[in-house]
Structure formats: C-alpha cells, structure tokens
Amino acid sequence: MELNLKRPIAFFDLETTGLDVSKDRIVEIAVLRIDPGGKKDSLHMFLNPGIPIDPRATAVHGIRDEDVADAPTFADIARQLALFLEGCDLAGYNCNRFDVPMLAEEFARAGVDFDFKDRRIIDVQVVFFKKEQRTLSAAYKFYLDREMENAHSAEADTEAAYEILKAQLDRYEDLENDVDYLAKFTTQNRNVDLMGRIIYNDKNEEVFNFGKYKGQRVADVLRRDPAYYSWMMNGDFPEYTKRVLTRIRLREFGK
C-alpha cells in the first residue's frame, strides 16, 4: 500500500559516534524523500564528526575515524539538508527516541533554525513494537519475507523503514493510511523538547518529566526555584531542551 500523503515525508537514518545525544555526532546520514504522488528523491552523506568515533559504534556501523577524515562536517551541509527537508514530515525507525533529537542537536550546534514543532513524526519501530515487538532486521523478515542486507547501513535502514511502513499498512486494517493518524499512533509521549525531558500533561501544560520536579509545571518550578533554570542551562542537557526551557521562561516572565 502506498502512503496517502498531503505533503512530502522524509524517511531518514543516522549513524553516529555514540549514543549520547548531547555529546555525540553524526557520521552518516541518509534521507529518502517521498512526495505526494510517489516521486522519490534521496540524499546520502558521510560526515566528519570532529570527535573520535567510539569503537563500540564502529563495531555496529563499520565507520572508522579515517573513513570520514576528509568528509564535510555537519555544519558544512546543514543548510543544504534543511532545504532538502523543507516542508517535510519525518519518519524512521526508532527516530522518536534517538534520530530526531540527535538531528535537532546538530542543527542547533550549526546555528540553523530548523523547526521540528509543526512536523508530523512517524516512528516505524513503535508501530512494529505495538503490533509485533521485534528488531529492524526481524521486522524486515516478518513483513517482507526476505532477509535484510547491509543492516546498520544508513541507506539500507532508511529504505527498510519505508518498505516496512507500507507493508504494515497492508497487514493491519485498523492502521489508517494517514500521516496525522500514524504520527499520533507512534507518539509515546507528548514531548515538548524531543528528548522528553519536558512533556505536555493532560491539560496541555508543559511539565518536567524527570528529576525532583517530575510532573510539576515548568512555569511553576521556574517561579518557585529560579536557580533550577541556571542548573539546567549549565548542565549536560541537549541544546534543544535548553532552547525550549528558555522559550518557556521568556514567555512566562518576559526576561
């Protein structure tokens, strides 16, 4: 079943130096853009992260420091990538918890104001886990009845996520072929900051989702404990989280 699209959707996958969104960097990115009507366009790049690649990451994706030593940095290609993703919703496998926050961090570090707020995001892994609960290679075998080649290659993983989502729509009659529906179906928390440090409660208010103030309104905490803002801004939190916190503070207090 082909996707029912009202605007373009970009399936993307990242390979990185490690798993810490705040500290690690992208070494490979692949994007498969699907336009309404089914036209495909793709982008694939290796990137010099500017920091050493963790050997444990290399063991997974096979990319070594010397492989990307002469590659461009993310900052070099950030505006080109933002233009390629202009007007697109986003999709991928495990993208809610990792790829989207990592991409947001890289754009923030590069000084490119890429807005995630109004983009629908579909996480194919969440559909899979809710329906079958297995891994990407197993999902590929389960839904498409063939073995996946080149797993943990960004290009292969991107194409696999696209093919799996179409197969999921064919298999599950209760899944609507609608990007709004699929984005809501694959959303696990109503995140404000992508990493889920700040989420919306049932009254659509921003609340902290970690630490000693978990479940409390951000505005109330900042009013009652102003030092908490400084602690977070100076702490090891993702840049995007800090931007969201600052936006709330400016909205509530005006300075």
What does this structure look like?
The chain has helices at 55-61, 74-84, 95-110, 124-131, 136-144, 154-171, 179-185, 218-224, 227-233, 239-253, and strands at 9-16, 26-34, 40-46, 89-92, 121-123, 198-200, 206-208. The protein has 255 residues and is an alpha/beta fold. It has two domains: 9-185, Ribonuclease H-like superfamily/Ribonuclease H (Nucleotidyltransferase, domain 5), CATH 3.30.420; 198-253, no CATH class. A five-stranded mixed sheet has the order 3-2-1-4-5, with helices on both faces. Strands 6-7 form a two-stranded antiparallel sheet. Strand 6 and strand 7 form a beta hairpin. It is globular, with a radius of gyration of 19 Å. The model has no long low-confidence stretch (mean pLDDT 93).
Lay out the secondary structure:
Elements: E1 9-16, E2 26-34, E3 40-46, H1 55-61, H2 74-84, E4 89-92, H3 95-110, E5 121-123, H4 124-131, H5 136-144, H6 154-171, H7 179-185, E6 198-200, E7 206-208, H8 218-224, H9 227-233, H10 239-253
Helix pairs in contact: 2-3, 4-6, 5-6
